[in-house]
Amino acid sequence: MSSPSSEQLSAANPNTEIMQLAIGYMPSACLYIAAKLRIADLLAVGSQPVGELARASQVNEDPLYRILRALASVGVFCEVSPRRFANTPLAETLLSDVPGSSRDTVLFLSDPLHLRVFAELMHPLLTLETAFRKTTGMEPFEFFRQNEAENKAFNAAMTAISATSVPQAVEVYDFGNAGTLADIGGGHGMLLALILEKHGGLRGIVYDLPNVIEGASKRIESLGLASRCEIQGGDFFESVPPADSYVLKSIIHDWDDARAVTILENCARSMRNRNGRVILIEQLIEPGNKPSLAKWIDMEMLAMAGGRERTQAEYADLFRKAGLRLTRVVLTPSPFCVIESVKA
């Protein structure tokens, strides 16, 4: 009779399984090291001995070996022979400068700042303030404006997430071929550019804080869309530009209910087409105990931004308070959904 595998022992032992959950920050920290050192890039040409990887990365060999061995145990990299590693499909998501890369996302979500913030996760339970404020003395967007390196990491992560989710939303949802669509909190214009490329009769507005939209003009011009798209700066808590419809990707989840309703009210108030739409691209929390990325991103919102991921019913309630009505939810192949509303 063969001995049980470590996986079988773990499945049969709740104490071992809970211990694995308790050390969940360790894979995160190791992933950050692998992404920072570009180990996947070094292995893109084929398997390498850890000594070569250490020399190329200018780090010590033994600690690197132990980190890669631990990551290989969860499917990130593979020790193909003693002290020699190769990429796996999971490791290949850490490749740089390739379509669909998650390297920038990993560098943000598992960076030392996040570890410090999540060490203070008890703080919001006691005070309703974010753990981020307890850690840094500021709210995230204020902090990022004052810390160039962290701001760069944040923007790179948001761009990487959009690069994998936005095309799928644009593919499955019909944004129409007439009128003007305003992308509220549109950043550098990635979402709106893809929409305008697909819907040739549509005009657009990229709207965001003045210091954010500087990069939007270059993107829009480089794609030959400048004649169909305006770039406007402003604060969506104060107002949004008049348009026929609005789209907001990963904006509402950043804010508590009161501020989320303010943004949506501004869209409803400025909508010049009675048949216009306010379209959200967000993750939805499903009821029950089913594993869900949205439930963990909700922890990011709790700790960092003070916002939240929401259920369909909670989005319907936000819309109602803003004078809108939820009409449908369109699923995409990504974790994101397209949530459509119209004037009530």
- The strand line-up of the biggest sheet is 6-5-4-7-8-10-9
Counting structural domains, the number is 2
CATH architectural grouping of the largest domain: 3-Layer(aba) Sandwich
Total DSSP E strands: 10
Distance between the termini: 68 Å
CA-based gyration radius: 22 Å
CATH topology of the largest domain: Rossmann fold
The helix content is: 40-55%
- How many separate helices? 18
CATH class of the largest domain, anyone?
Answer: Alpha Beta
CATH superfamily of the largest domain: Vaccinia Virus protein VP39
Provide structural commentary:
With 344 residues, the protein is an alpha/beta fold. It folds into 2 domains: 93 residues, Orthogonal Bundle (Arc Repressor Mutant, subunit A), CATH 1.10.10.10; 179 residues, Vaccinia Virus protein VP39 (Rossmann fold, 3-Layer(aba) Sandwich), CATH 3.40.50.150. It contains 18 helices and 10 strands. A 7-stranded mixed beta sheet has the order 6-5-4-7-8-10-9, with helices on both faces. Helix 14 links the parallel strand 4 and strand 5. The chain is globular and about 65 Å long.
